[in-house]
Amino acid sequence: MSWKTGFRSLYYLGAPEPDDPVLVPAQTAILVIDVQNTYLERPDRASLSPQEQQRYDLWTPFHERMHGTVIPNTARLLALARQNGIECLFARIACHTKDGRDRSLSQKMPGWNNLLLPKNDAPSQLVAELQPAGDEIVVTKTTDSALTGTNLRLILHNLGIRNVICCGIFTDQCVSSTVRSLADESYAVIVLEDCCAAATEELHRKELEIINMIYCHVMSSGELCKIMALAK
């Protein structure tokens, strides 16, 4: 199954197959969202309580996908983009204050989204494998959407970007929020399914179905490379 027929929700069953997008390198950017140390670090399982070990095991498929699929594919894509004059940008969640008082309400809510990531601390930094090169731009956001929470809108405009290719985590949270914001601003958006991850494969695939064909087109990094004639 190709990207033209995959990841379709009920809304788009039977809809015509889309044409291949026209992606001029000078008008196209790769945006890597929130692949930060805080999400990839893990404690020693043996040091955990039985309940904590159960939660640890639930997260193991996510970590396997990140290290085995998402990070390697994204690193390869960034290398190809740099060789072909495609802008590479990065977004990360971080707060400007030590106590996080500048965070949006959604990042102060109890539970998973209660993030306190001061911008200069190690947990908030991008992972070593996906560091910016040269003068590539990193935006720091205190909201889920990289567009709403930063000056990324102005940056993309000034760079002459019309097409944004999204990678990162989490598919059903910050990636999805960013995609929707970009679509509302009339950017053509592509999400690379093998360069993203959610907490579970089910959440990942379901969110891709939800946003595909209306807010973006979902495809693999290999399909994108073929469309753009990038050697892979």
UniProtKB/TrEMBL annotation:
The keyword Zinc does not apply. One of its GO terms (molecular function) is hydrolase activity. It comes from Mesorhizobium jarvisii. Keywords: Hydrolase. InterPro entries: Isochorismatase-like_dom, Isochorismatase-like_hydrls, Isochorismatase-like_sf. SUPFAM superfamilies: Isochorismatase-like hydrolases. Coiled coil: none annotated. This is Cysteine hydrolase family protein. The keyword Calcium does not apply. It holds the Pfam family Isochorismatase.
